[in-house]
Design goal:
The complex is a heterodimer of chains A (about 260) and B (about 290). Chain A has about 260 residues and is mainly α. Helices cover about 75% and strands about 0% of the residues of chain A. In chain A, strands 1-2 form a two-stranded antiparallel sheet. The longest helix of chain A has about 30 residues. Chain A is globular and about 75 Å long. Chain A starts with a helix and ends in a 6-residue tail after the last helix. Chain B is mostly helical and about 290 residues long. Chain B folds into two domains: about 40 residues, no CATH class; about 230 residues, Orthogonal Bundle (MetI-like fold). A two-stranded antiparallel ribbon of chain B has the order 1-2. In chain B, helix 1 crosses helix 11, helix 3 crosses helix 6 and helix 4 packs across helix 6. Chain B is globular and about 75 Å long. The chains are: A mainly alpha (about 260), B mainly alpha (about 290). At the A-B interface, helix 1, helix 3, helix 4, helix 5 and helix 6 of A face helix 1, helix 4, helix 5, helix 6 and helix 9 of B.
Amino acid sequence: MKYYSPRLALAVIFLFPLIWSGWASVRGPEGFTLANYRSITGYGEGLATYVGNSLMLSGMTVVGTLVVATLGGYAFARFHFPGKNLLFLAALAILMVPYATILIPLYVLLDHVGLQNSLLGLSLVFVMFQLPFALYMMRNSFEAIPREIEESALVDGAGSVKVLLSVLLPAVRPGLVTVGLFAFLASWNDFFAPLILLSDGASFPLPVAVVSMTQRTFGAIDYGVLQAGVMVMAVPCLVLFLVLQRYYVRGFMSGALRG
Amino acid sequence: MTSPLSTAPRLRRRRALAGWAYAAPTAVIVAVLFIAPLVLVVIMSLHKWPLLGQARPNFPANYTKIPDDPLFLDSVLFTLKYTVIVTILLSAVALGLALLVQDRRPGVGFFRTAFFLPGAVGFAAAALLFYGLLNNDFGPFGFLGVNWIGSPNMALTSTILLVLWRFAGFNMLILLTGLQAIPVEVYEAARADGANRWQIFTRITLPLLRPTLALMLILSITGSLLAFDQFFIFTNGGPDNSTVSMVMVVYRNAFFRFDLGGAAALSVVLLVVLVALNAVQMRILRGATTK
């Protein structure tokens, strides 16, 4: 008891806001109601639009990060080429630069190439922000594979593309899941980058759309609807985290943050 | 590199080309979306760069006018104050939590997950959650009669509660990796020598945890100096601009005053300060590791 009671009390404190938010989102004057969820469905451009935007954004970010980091990680782990260390250091340096410092010029730059207000442009920016962690993770994953495995395949006449796809990719799957999970959580939840890079309400992802609910000048804020919005954003992350917790902690432990 | 793959020069050149091909997407992303914007932000900071219309060189006006912006000066002081308070509280809470869940006992996984779970929620969602939770008409704490964001001090306090709730578990996880790297034998030897729990904590745990603590401090300090979401969403800078962070001023200059050049100059200053700070912290961290 002496061991469990303080920990249990703390667990209650940490879990309480989440449970409260879930409860507040279905609370009505006469008990349980889905009215808040019905009313958020019709908010602004429609909840479906925002969820769709968020899914598109996260989908493109996850796929883009996986492709770039897999190819890059393979290159950094297995090949020698001029400029290799410089490129790796440049990619890691992304971690050192404040978000705002890079987003202000990106706003001008993306506008210049016609990618303003575009989820594609934003997802490319997210891929860039994920690169330090993703590259580091994938390079380490490839390095952990014994060289003999691919060398025997190469001797058998397979090209490096074939070796990568059929021999190495299955072996780095845990790394891919970790990188994909981090890319999803980051792009699904990010608020600052879409706030700066998107101006058209119809292309807003969930966080920007739901926050704009609190900043309307006309009419009172409906807090119940707001908590429904919080749940729509939070539940996919909570579920993914609980299911893939092992991979999350793995990414953490492997010194990801030390990059 | 005595692998048979790289012995023949022709083969080596082919391998180098293949390596470049695989690294090409990384190189393009780094060059176009990282290096180019870094160069552009410096160029922008040397120009009068309106949101719409022609840019004109005006160096050094964007830099010299920084001290004339009282909102920015206030935001520097406020952000520093916030950073110090949050970093101290976050380290203390995270260390406490990590110590509570370091032993392998039945149910410890549940506690770790419970403490970390707020970290899985996006920060914007967490800020909106607290926006309702700490609203006295809607939230469960109205009976306390506390005006959570009514005064500058309360707004800061409430924001810190939000940040502690959202990030304590995350930092706990960092510290836990350090705690678990301490060999059990060290503790056993100390106990055999008759050390009590406090002595074990101050003479063994804390010194051996220094590198991990230093890493946690770096992340907390840089994260807090760049604070935006919590103040933009939860307090909206108020009351009376008392919770305006540095990055919020950058944002305001760019998108409310339409002065991208001025915002770029502030961003460059922020970048220089942060890189310098990182360098200092890395040195300290490295010193701590070798000790």
